[in-house]
Design brief:
It is a single chain. The chain is an alpha+beta fold. It has two domains: 1-17 and 234-254, no CATH class; 24-233, no CATH class. It has three helices and 15 strands. The protein has helices at 3-16, 28-34, 235-253, and strands at residues 59-61, 66-73, 83-88, 94-98, 107-113, 116-122, 128-135, 142-147, 153-155, 174-178, 184-185, 194-195, 200-205, 220-225, 227-229. The two termini are 17 Å apart. Keywords: Signal.
Length: 254
């Protein structure tokens, strides 16, 4: 392929690499998030592609070495049995952050010590419930997962879901929103409102395969703090490396 064709391919990839919003098909998620705010109006439109955060497939704990998760709400028939956690990107290892009985106000802290992730769960009154660990082989990056009583597991990496719509594209069971440094939220329903800062993210999940889902993304809604999204290499970035290699080869052969 000559350089002109490669540049054309790059422009096509650039166009297809743009991230579109995941359609949220009811107003339930917007209403639920509005209800968390001090003024009853979250300054985020959940269907706005500029306000849905992407990429949200891979994550890590930021430099403070401890991250926090709060279960904000679950509007789902499977809520009492649905579990939520993180998974190793390179193995089958997982670590549960919320068990099935967890409900609004439950929280879990996540720490990484060497190769080990340590999760400590508390109930809505702040009482200690459990502590679990998992070895992720030293990789600091991980994904989030949701598992339902139907034994369906959905991943933040949508390609792992094996769940396709008619368009042949992997259906995304997670929509994410970054804090806007404006709203004040009470995600654990304790009556205390804190700033929804850029260090906070809301993770909202759909718990059914799309051929039978309502796509309201209210089946588990979690606010996380001190988690950092990790961008994946885009096709355009990969192609840019190829272009650089081609240019080097052309210089050598002249």
């Amino acid at each position: 392929m000559n350089l002109k064709k490669l540049l054309l391919a790059a422009s096509l990839l650039s166009a297809t690499a743009l991230v579109n919003a995941t359609p949220v098909l009811t107003g339930a998620l917007q209403n639920g998030l509005d209800n968390l705010t001090l003024d009853g109006q979250l300054d985020i439109n959940v269907n706005d592609e500029n306000q849905q955060y992407n990429p949200d497939e891979m994550w890590q704990i930021d430099s403070v070495s401890q991250a926090n998760t709060v279960l904000a709400f679950e509007l789902a028939g499977f809520a009492s049995t649905t579990t939520f956690g993180i998974y190793d990107l390179n193995s089958s290892s997982t670590l549960e952050l919320f068990t099935g009985p967890a409900s609004t106000g439950f929280s879990t802290t996540l720490r990484q010590v060497g190769n080990t992730f340590l999760a400590t769960m508390f109930d809505s009154n702040g009482f200690f419930l459990s502590q679990t660990t998992a070895d992720f082989g030293g990789d600091q990056n991980f994904g989030f997962y949701l598992t339902t009583q139907q034994n369906n597991t959905f991943y933040s990496q949508s390609a792992l879901n094996g769940d396709y719509n008619n368009d042949g594209i992997d259906d995304d069971h997670l929509v994410s929103f970054q804090g806007n440094d404006v709203d004040r939220l009470d995600p654990d329903n304790d009556g205390l409102y804190g700033l929804f800062s850029s260090n906070n993210f809301i993770l909202a999940w759909e718990d059914l395969r799309f051929d039978g889902a309502d796509r309201d993304y209210t089946d588990m809604v979690v606010m996380v703090e001190s988690f950092v999204p990790v961008p994946e290499p885009t096709p355009l970035a990969i192609l840019a490396v190829g272009l650089a290699g081609l240019a080097f080869t052309r210089r050598k052969t002249k």
